[in-house]
């Protein structure tokens, strides 16, 4: 056992104990964060306009600060982008993370000297919790890779602009610099396909022990490694690869494909990062869900998704949430976001400590007929339909077909197969049965002959990659929406 791995275990024990202190006091922890945020921003333009000096309670905050999305906050953000100080948060942000918006075009999310360290600590602590629980620290001596955006940044008015993953690349701790791959030069390549090919060339002969990134793009990296190596499994290429770290999408639809590519099962750690904040990470291999980070400069509110689009929906604090309920996640942060709807929905799998799963996007659902199908339902249905079969899925998305040329409307599942079903009708039936169990409204529509059963449409090999490329969203943190209430993606795939 190396000195580095021994040190990692000692540090992991310390971080675990620190985590327990705040995780076991969720309400008190969030109250302390709330008071700190309000006090720090009371003299900003936003704080003065919303009377932060008079806010003493959560109820006061709700009265003074409405729920906002990016468009609602854009006037303030534009001032910050021009270099004005003390607008949303004291001083100026260090960075703006550029991210794609579904309705707003590009969005620019501020990162401050207070918020940026929480992103780095969360990534580190996720790994340390894994080390503490499993005792496995040997991987710290191997090479580690994160498939990320370019770290090249631009600067305007004293603020740097870039992708979150590219910004984070500037904060890799010194003790990991020798282990980190790919090289800085390769990481700066903008074209995703060129970049992945360069990463393959750099890493194929290295002792890779940890690989991380969005599953769909890691899959592309693995497939190119196989091509380069003459068809070898990943565990033959990287004999010490034992830990996969991912975020951004549910891993389950990709698991069978990954285990086939790798040639064995490997441990995994799920993360819940976003430009708006690093919200949660998987703190244990033994329980479902990710630990919600209650002490990281983020105050959380939750709105039940079935109430979200009503007038003045109730906003719940951490002490009021329930298990298994679908909530829209609302945050106020030490980067100057206030009552901000990040667009993600979560469900709690545990309340002590508070663990969540990401159940979808508040705007990504199918409710063409009132069924309100969400991402976690279609992902679970796909998992059940492929379980104990030879079927392997590369990617899929779902859209409604409201005006078919003949017959009843239906939900159309666009699926790129690695291994196809022997009988497509049986496969479609399995998906439909699973969906009917998951969603009673969908079941009612099928029973009432309002909808016909699901239709599965095959997507050609690399069809989803080609679609993303056509949209200028190949690689990085971009991902295919699991479902949508229109046919924009569906018609492009067809």
Distance between the termini: 54 Å
Could you tell me the radius of gyration in angstroms?
23 Å
On the 0-100 scale, what is the average pLDDT?
92
Oligomer: single chain
Task: Characterise the protein shown here.
The chain has about 500 residues and is α/β, with parallel strands linked by helices. About 35% of the residues lie in helices and about 20% in strands. It is built from 18 helices and 18 strands. The strands form three sheets. The chain has an eleven-stranded mixed sheet with strand order 6-3-7-8-9-10-11-15-14-13-12. Strands 2-1-5-4 form a four-stranded mixed sheet. The chain has a three-stranded mixed sheet with strand order 16-17-18. Strand 14 and strand 15 form a beta hairpin. Helix 1 crosses helix 6. The longest helix is centred in the N-terminal third of the chain and has 21 residues. The termini are far apart. The mean pLDDT is about 90.
